[in-house]
Amino acid sequence: MKKFWQEFGNTFLAPLSGCSDLSFRLIAREHGAKFCFYEMVDANALLHQQDPKRDILKTHPDDKPIAAQLLGSNPDQMLEAAKLLLTMVEPVFLDINAACPAKKILKKKCGAYFAKNPTNLFKIIEKLSSNLSLPITVKLRIGFDRYDEKEFIANVKNCEKAGASALFVHGRTMKQGYSGTVNYEAIKKAKAAVKIPLFGSGDILNRELMHKMLNETGCDGVLVARGALGNPWFFSGETPDPEEKKNVMRRHLAYLEKYKKTRPTGKLGQMKKTAMWYLKEFRNTHELRRQITNCRTIPELLALAKII
């Protein structure tokens, strides 16, 4: 796995649920992203053939290399879902989501809930790593409702022992969600405690914060999430002018129209959200948001995008 990071760099596009679809990834790759994740895939939904979940796995010849992330709490079901997933796509590695703090995920006793029940997480890692040929990684948080250094370090060591090939650590607890400050010291201690590669995550909103994460923790790389929304230039380090932002926004919308397979209303909503990402720093943002919100059809939105 260490050789892999050296080949594809240390800045990966994170698995952003509801955001990092094929269109998002293609735009990111055009601007320097060398490695991406599919959106998070729910194991139960995949096994029950729910089309929206399968659409998440849509790919393209230019959409490589890539990794997949699986969500679930039952070791046997996770293995079954992983085997099915591998008949559909060819990820370089498979990640286990032990970091999502959403309430609906916690109710399923997975995602960030694993900080409360790490034993089950270790069982899933062992089940997958011993039955699949590709590397298994884990994205996790530093605790559930609080950070306990001893417990957290034990957890990362046990992930490694169970067969994880790499770790992606979000430097907040489940209770913090995406608020408060990232605990760089916790990530630094985790990095020192394991021999496998460890990536830092949380508040990588710009390249300055990316370098802060790398320098203060000594981690092997970072996962970029919110910092890439409407900002694919994060990966190249370029500073686009307003006209470039508008042109890339238009191309992103065109990709969504072409590749997004969902209900027209759902596609329109995704396209509106995407347009607003790119325009958030424009001087007349409020008026632009109003105009975008008022669009009732995809052709209407595309026509507006041409004249913005």
Question: What do you see in this structure?
Answer:
The protein is α/β, with parallel strands linked by helices and about 300 residues long. The protein has 2 domains: about 1-235, TIM Barrel; about 240-305. The protein is built from 14 helices and 9 strands. The chain has helices at about 1-10, 20-30, 45, 50-55, 75-90, 105, 120-130, 150-160, 185-195, 205-215, 240-260, 265-280, 285-295, 300-305, and strands at about 10-15, 35, 40, 65-70, 95-100, 135-140, 165-170, 200, 220-225. Strands 1, 2, 3, 4, 5, 6, 7, 8 and 9 form a 9-stranded parallel β-sheet that branches. β6 (about 135-140), α8 (about 150-160) and β7 form a beta-alpha-beta unit. α2 runs antiparallel to α11 (about 240-260), α7 runs parallel beside α8 (about 150-160) and α8 crosses α9 (about 185-195).
- The run of helices and strands is HEHEEHHEHEHHEHEHEHEHHHH
Q: Cα distance, first to last residue?
A: 45 Å
| CATH architecture type of the largest domain | Alpha-Beta Barrel
How many E-type strands?
9
The 3D shape can be described as globular
Total individual domains? 2
Strand content bin: 5-15%
* SSE class: alpha/beta
The top level CATH class name of the largest domain: Alpha Beta
The fold-level CATH name of the largest domain is: TIM Barrel
Q: Radius of gyration, Cα only, in angstroms?
A: 19 Å
Q: Helicity level, as a percent range? A: 40-55%
Instruction: Spell out the CATH superfamily of the largest domain.
Output: Aldolase class I
Overall pLDDT level:
94
